[in-house]
Specification:
Elements (H helix, E strand, L loop, with lengths): L5 H4 L5 E4 L2 E4 L8 H4 L5 H17 L2 H7 L1 H15 L5 H7 L7 E5 L6 E6 L2 E8 L1 E2 L5 E2 L5 H19 L1 H21 L5 H20 L7 H11 L4 H7 L1 H5 L11 H13 L1 H9 L5 E5 L12 E6 L9 E2 L7 E2 L7 E2 L4 E5 L9 E5 L14 E4 L1
Parallel strand pairs: 3-5, 11-14
Antiparallel strand pairs: 1-2, 4-5, 6-7, 8-9, 9-13, 10-14, 12-13, 14-15
Helix pairs in contact: 7-9, 8-9, 8-13, 9-10, 10-11
């Protein structure tokens, strides 16, 4: 039915637990559920609640929850250590609205998935997944601040896209086909969702512009977002510089909305240039000796690969998943001859057989941290 991701976590608004049973809140008109979230229908939602209640009773979940209360308390305590580093005053200065006191759920069964709970009144709360340390206890790294901020910001940024969708839609539909495949991999399936996520990512990047830390800047976050498919994100960060230069005119991001809409239109109308710009950022190999397919490879003891720009000298390889391609026999450690040149010691190649190796992203990064992935066969 297409019910997945935040369609599940958002149902917490409409559920109650009473007398040992999960039911539908009296505040919800189930016939209206499809207007709230098109992934649900009256019948599927009622079926879902019935199954959820069945699980709740048969698993004796309330007893399980109480038995593990100390574990949950530890998760909260560790999460609070991360939360205290967030400058909550920034929301007022950037959006003109207080963050308030949203519900924050530390979800021990959500893995890496995180969701904002946004209703008609704005941000109601967020759900944040969690990892575990080697001992199996909940673990939150300080870099999760960027994820937490992203979800908190949704409660403010969503309205900008939603309220102006009529003006944005045609431009968003120009951009979306170019990034559709990449967006599908991170569960963003339509143009409006992509625009909402783009703006939320941009606002999160700007938070770090105004609240710099040693592990994140607006530019570094923009680069990460570009690698995920938002290939116009660095342009977006540059565009936001005009917001800061004219804060006497633009008190909040909402005042800047007309400029944001114009930026989206300009980006869409020039997306061929955006694509060309992004493609030319990726480092590439300009010279390989011996060249792939060369018989000379059987008479040398190293393969040298020269890159188009200086690299950070990280390295990683893996075997090509093809039974017809032999593992490339290495006689020593791979190493960087200089900032441009990567060397693989080899030996013992047999004629008549095909050998190969894959250089995998993200092990090879340029100073701009763009990915490279190539196969080499001999």
């Amino acid at each position: 039915y297409g019910v997945s991701y935040n369609a599940i976590s958002s149902t917490s608004y409409y559920l109650v637990i009473k007398n040992g049973k999960i039911g539908i809140s009296p505040n919800l008109n189930v016939s209206e559920i499809e207007k709230i979230d098109k992934r649900w229908t009256k019948d599927t939602f009622k079926k879902y609640v019935s199954l959820l209640n069945d699980f709740y009773k048969k698993s004796k979940f309330n007893r399980f929850f109480l038995q593990h209360k100390d574990y949950y308390n530890q998760a909260e305590e560790r999460f609070n250590v991360v939360l205290k580093d967030i400058n909550t005053n920034w929301f007022k200065s950037f959006f003109g609205k207080e963050l308030g006191e949203p519900l924050i759920v530390t979800s021990l069964c959500n893995g890496p998935s995180n969701y904002a709970l946004v209703d008609e009144n704005g941000l109601a709360g967020i759900v944040v997944g969690v990892g575990s340390d080697p001992q199996g206890f909940p673990y939150y790294h300080k870099r999760m601040i960027s994820i937490i901020l992203h979800e908190l910001i949704h409660g403010f940024s969503n309205s900008i896209v939603d309220d102006n969708w009529n003006e944005i839609e045609s431009s968003a539909n120009i951009i979306f086909p170019h990034v559709k495949e990449a967006m599908a991999k991170i569960a963003y399936g339509d143009a409006q969702t992509v625009m909402g996520e783009w703006l939320t990512n941009l606002c999160a990047a700007i938070y770090f512009h105004e609240n710099p830390v040693d592990w994140a800047t607006a530019e570094s976050l923009a680069t990460m977002d570009e690698r995920r498919g938002f290939i116009w994100m660095n342009r977006s960060v540059i565009f936001m510089s005009h917001f800061f230069k004219n804060r006497n005119q633009f008190k909040t991001i909402y005042d800047y909305t007309p400029a944001i809409i114009d930026f989206i239109k300009y980006t869409a109308n020039n997306f061929d240039q955006v694509l060309n710009e992004y493609n030319n950022k990726t480092p590439y190999i300009v010279d390989v000796f011996p060249a792939p397919g060369s018989t000379i490879a059987f008479n040398v003891d190293t393969i040298e690969m020269r890159f188009s720009e200086p690299m950070i000298r990280a390295n990683g390889t893996k075997n090509i998943d093809d039974e017809n391609i032999m593992v490339l026999p290495m006689t020593g450690q791979m190493f960087w001859k200089d900032d441009y040149t990567f060397v693989i010691p080899i030996g013992g190649l047999e004629k008549g057989k095909t050998y190969g190796i894959e250089l995998g992203s993200p092990y090879f990064k340029s100073i701009k941290q763009y990915p490279l992935k190539e196969n080499y066969k001999y």
